[in-house]
Amino acid sequence: IKVFLESSVDTGQLQELKKASSMVEAPNSDKKPNEETLQKMLIKIKDTKERNKLIVKAYQKGYSQHMIAKILDLNQATVQRIIKRTKMDDSFGIR
Question: Which one has a higher pLDDT value, 82 or 26?
């Protein structure tokens, strides 16, 4: 690590990296998820299975796990596990 930290930096390469990183497209970066819209989406929940599907759908739409958990009064780790489990179920063809 010491050698890495003490090595010289090629400013030309640094500028090239900076330029390349600014060209990377960030999908939905201009779209701020609306908490009120999420509340309306999640208020329809009737059972756990439907809740889990809507959690994944909201996450895929760009809502953060934290925001979803806050609205549903769940722990963020619970939301994370639901998303992870659903992705695993989908990859194995379970549903």
Answer: 82
